[in-house]
């Protein structure tokens, strides 16, 4: 406890880090306040009565927006339209030569891509906003139902999404951590206390499973969290060597052994965010459909077989896809060759790139499968008797995002501490994944 208090003092003593943390907290507070501001012309009480007991995929979307979806707030659509636009732009980067050229232009090209992504976000939100009002806000909750009111709420919803996107970018630039991921995480965490107390009340009630089963649930949750942390931080160390250096009359060896840390889950939380964003599409289509059956209605069933089967496959596919665009074996091989380094037993250049690509493919497969299994784990929890509101935290998108974002934020804070010669957040070791491309083995 004493070391923890000292670490907090160290964090507070660094002016830049203190400013970034306070900025992050202030912007997150703005996001949470906005999630409670209801759209004009909507009866909040009638809407709450209509959405009482709502679950399924719509409940999951409500979780990501911190409850704003069911409250019909100005941030009802949250950041998901921006994520959808980012997915489309990254897919276009594979097929469209113009986008590929921008990706190779460095910072200027990325700036253009970001601008196109923002414009595409406006288009996507413009289509999703009227669908959301029509499907999620019943006529009994609409105080006004005129064309002017529809235009007004569509503009407000679009502006709200753009404002949330701006908050995320400001957090990334001036705060700590990835702003977009933090906004999603804070919405998820906001629903955790309520879901936990509901599970406690249900378990200890007359029809509940009892205290013993509740303790077993909590132990299982801790095991899943530990496994998720292990997945996020697991690395495969590829040993590398550098030639001896001659300085004057003295000869220096390569010193401590060096390695390239290839993460088992190089893609982080992005594959599951991308897959979840796409799985929300059947929800919107099903809401437009008047029939209670059909393929898209089945896909909108959070606990259904087809939803989870397709979700699993998409998480695995996006893991490979995002790993391919974020980790470049050719560039790593070129950097090694330029610095005179080599992998023992492997020729520099093309052979090194092929070797790294093979290793990356082999470690990505079990990582992708495990990631996909964790993504659909809440369904198994529901089958075991856990309430849906609490089962969402037994794996799935919510747990992976929380673990990944928290670890990434802690790594950034630790890097500030270590740069100023303070002890890191963990005295006995460093958070995995903080090292750069070439790390020193302990």
UniProtKB/TrEMBL annotation:
**Protein's recorded name:** Protein translocase subunit SecY
Q: Which InterPro entries match?
A: SecY, SecY/SEC61-alpha, SecY_CS, SecY_dom_sf
Q: Where in the cell is it found?
A: Cell membrane; Membrane
Q: Which HAMAP family does the protein's record reference? A: SecY (MF_01465)
Q: Please give the superkingdom of this protein's source.
A: Bacteria
Q: Provide a GO biological process annotation.
A: intracellular protein transmembrane transport
Q: Which GO terms describe its cellular component?
A: plasma membrane
Q: What's this chain's function? A: The central subunit of the protein translocation channel SecYEG. Consists of two halves formed by TMs 1-5 and 6-10. These two domains form a lateral gate at the front which open onto the bilayer between TMs 2 and 7, and are clamped together by SecE at the back. The channel is closed by both a pore ring composed of hydrophobic SecY resides and a short helix (helix 2A) on the extracellular side of the membrane which forms a plug. The plug probably moves laterally to allow the channel to open. The ring and the pore may move independently.
Ranges that cross the membrane: 21-39, 74-96, 116-135, 147-168, 180-198, 210-235, 267-285, 305-327, 363-383, 389-410
Question: Do you know which NCBIfam families this protein is assigned to?
Answer: 3a0501s007
Query: What family does this belong to?
Result: Belongs to the SecY/SEC61-alpha family.
Q: Which UniProt keywords apply?
A: Cell membrane, Membrane, Protein transport, Translocation, Transmembrane, Transmembrane helix, Transport
Write the gene name.
secY
| Membrane topology per record | Multi-pass membrane protein
What Pfam families does its record include?
SecY
- Assembly with partners or alone: Component of the Sec protein translocase complex. Heterotrimer consisting of SecY, SecE and SecG subunits. The heterotrimers can form oligomers, although 1 heterotrimer is thought to be able to translocate proteins. Interacts with the ribosome. Interacts with SecDF, and other proteins may be involved. Interacts with SecA.
């Amino acid at each position: 406890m004493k070391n923890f208090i000292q670490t907090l003092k160290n964090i507070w003593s660094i002016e830049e880090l203190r400013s970034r943390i306070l900025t992050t907290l202030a912007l997150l507070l703005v996001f949470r306040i906005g999630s409670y501001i209801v759209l004009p012309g909507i009866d909040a009480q009638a809407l709450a009565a209509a959405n009482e007991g709502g679950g399924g995929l719509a409940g999951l979307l409500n979780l990501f927006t911190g409850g704003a979806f069911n409250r019909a707030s100005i941030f009802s659509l949250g950041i998901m339209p921006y994520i959808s636009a980012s997915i489309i732009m990254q897919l276009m980067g594979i097929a469209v030569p113009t986008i590929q050229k921008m990706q190779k232009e460095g910072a200027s090209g990325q700036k253009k891509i970001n601008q196109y992504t923002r414009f595409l976000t406006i288009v996507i939100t413009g289509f999703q906003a009227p669908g959301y009002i029509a499907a999620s806000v019943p006529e009994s909750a609409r105080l006004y139902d005129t064309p002017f009111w529809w235009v007004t709420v569509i503009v407000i919803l679009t502006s709200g999404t753009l404002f949330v996107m701006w908050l995320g970018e400001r957090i990334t630039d001036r705060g700590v951590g990835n702003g977009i991921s933090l906004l999603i995480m804070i919405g998820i965490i906001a629903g955790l206390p309520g879901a936990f107390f509901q599970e406690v009340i249900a378990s200890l009630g007359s029809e509940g499973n009892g205290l013993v089963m509740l303790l077993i649930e909590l132990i299982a949750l801790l095991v899943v969290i530990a496994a998720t942390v292990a997945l996020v931080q697991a690395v495969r160390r590829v040993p590398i060597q550098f030639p001896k250096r001659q300085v004057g009359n003295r000869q220096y060896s390569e010193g401590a052994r060096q390695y390239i840390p290839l993460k088992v889950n190089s893609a982080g939380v992005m594959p599951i965010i991308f897959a979840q964003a796409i799985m929300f599409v059947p929800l919107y289509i099903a809401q437009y459909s008047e029939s209670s059956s059909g393929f898209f209605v089945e896909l909108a069933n959070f606990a259904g077989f087809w939803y989870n089967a397709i979700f699993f496959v998409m998480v695995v596919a996006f893991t490979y896809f995002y790993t391919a665009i974020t980790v470049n074996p050719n560039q790593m091989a070129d950097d090694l060759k330029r610095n005179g380094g080599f992998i023992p037993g492997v020729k520099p250049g093309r052979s090194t790139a092929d070797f790294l690509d093979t290793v990356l493919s082999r470690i990505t497969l079990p990582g992708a499968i495990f990631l996909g299994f964790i993504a659909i784990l809440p369904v198994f929890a529901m089958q075991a008797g856990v309430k849906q509101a609490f089962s969402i935290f037994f794996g799935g998108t919510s747990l992976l995002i929380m673990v990944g974002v928290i670890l990434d934020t802690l790594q950034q804070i630790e890097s500030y501490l270590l740069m100023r010669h303070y002890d890191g957040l963990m005295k006995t070791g460093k958070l995995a994944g903080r090292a750069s491309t070439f790390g020193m083995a302990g």
